[in-house]
């Protein structure tokens, strides 16, 4: 039944895949370890200032290195924790089971799957397709983004699926999958035009003034 690249049908469930990746607390911690290295780099100037003032105060080089190492380690730990906890709530996919007419669903987050819920808990799926079109004379292509909102009982989950070029196809596939279970699927398209770059009004007015004075 799944006819969209974001919907993957398996033997036991149909998954709405938002991000490709493994789920689990260990994997979430490991994937956050690399980006956390940027925290000591971003705070490198204050750390070097501490080292500089210690050197001016007459501290031994070995002591300075130890202190700088401890500070960098704490900065890395803080950055790692700042990434781990928000990422733990990121939704990787939504599973609907069984694969035919679903009776249950669950959200699979980076830290692991939530509990299974009755599919009736999902009241509505809202898709918002935003298109920013070029202004006249703009050579840059239009930019499209897609936002997805799951309206559950007492909570709304806002997701950002990868844009695959045809929101209508995704909406139709979700309707075919969830319609028999009584879930409403809505697609809304919002179009706007990219702002034209502002010219330097001060320079333009100055130029026109000089031309006018020259004509006199």
Describe the main β-sheet briefly: 6 strands, antiparallel
List how many beta strands DSSP finds.
10
Task: Provide mean pLDDT, rounded.
Answer: 79
Oligomer: single chain
Order of helices and strands: EEHHHHEEEEEEEHEH
Structural class: alpha+beta
Proportion of β residues? 25-35%
The low-confidence runs, each spanning 5 or more residues with pLDDT under 50, are 203-216
What spatial form do the alpha-carbon principal axes imply?
flat
- Bin the helical content: 25-40%
Task: Describe the protein.
With 216 residues, this protein is of the alpha+beta class. The chain is 38% helix and 28% strand. The protein contains 6 helices and 10 strands. The protein has helices at 25-33, 38-42, 44-56, 61-88, 167-178, 201-215; strands at 7-9, 14-17, 91-97, 104-109, 112-113, 117-118, 122-133, 143-152, 155-159, 184-193. The strands form 2 sheets. Strands 1, 2, 3, 4, 5 and 6 form a 6-stranded antiparallel sheet that branches. α1 (25-33) crosses α4 and α3 (44-56) runs antiparallel to α4.
Write the layout of secondary structure elements.
Elements lengths: L6 E3 L4 E4 L7 H9 L4 H5 L1 H13 L4 H28 L2 E7 L6 E6 L2 E2 L3 E2 L3 E12 L9 E10 L2 E5 L7 H12 L5 E10 L7 H15 L1
Parallel strand pairs: 7-10
Antiparallel strand pairs: 1-2, 2-3, 3-4, 4-5, 4-6, 7-8, 8-9
Helix pairs in contact: 1-4, 3-4
Précis, in short:
The chain is 38% helix and 28% strand. The chain has helices at 25-33, 38-42, 44-56, 61-88, 167-178, 201-215, and strands at 7-9, 14-17, 91-97, 104-109, 112-113, 117-118, 122-133, 143-152, 155-159, 184-193.
């Amino acid at each position: 039944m799944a006819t969209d690249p974001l919907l993957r049908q398996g033997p036991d469930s149909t998954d709405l895949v938002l991000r490709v990746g493994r789920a689990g607390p260990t994997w979430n911690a490991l994937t956050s370890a690399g980006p956390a290295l940027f925290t000591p780099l971003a705070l490198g100037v204050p750390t070097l200032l501490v080292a500089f003032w210690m050197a001016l105060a007459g501290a031994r080089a070995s002591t300075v290195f130890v202190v700088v190492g401890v500070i960098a380690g704490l900065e890395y730990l803080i950055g790692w924790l700042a990434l781990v906890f928000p990422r733990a709530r990121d939704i990787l996919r939504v599973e609907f089971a069984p694969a035919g007419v679903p009776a249950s669903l669950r959200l699979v987050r980076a830290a692991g799957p939530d509990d299974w819920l009755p599919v009736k808990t999902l009241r509505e799926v809202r898709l918002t397709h935003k298109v920013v079109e070029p202004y006249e004379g703009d050579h840059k292509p239009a930019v499209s983004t897609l936002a997805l909102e799951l309206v559950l009982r007492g909570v709304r989950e806002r997701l950002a699926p990868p844009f695959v070029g045809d929101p209508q196809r995704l909406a139709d596939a979700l309707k075919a999958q969830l319609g028999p279970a009584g879930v409403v699927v809505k697609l809304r398209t919002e179009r706007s035009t990219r702002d034209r770059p502002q010219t330097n009004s001060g320079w333009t007015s100055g130029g026109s003034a000089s031309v006018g004075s020259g004509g006199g």
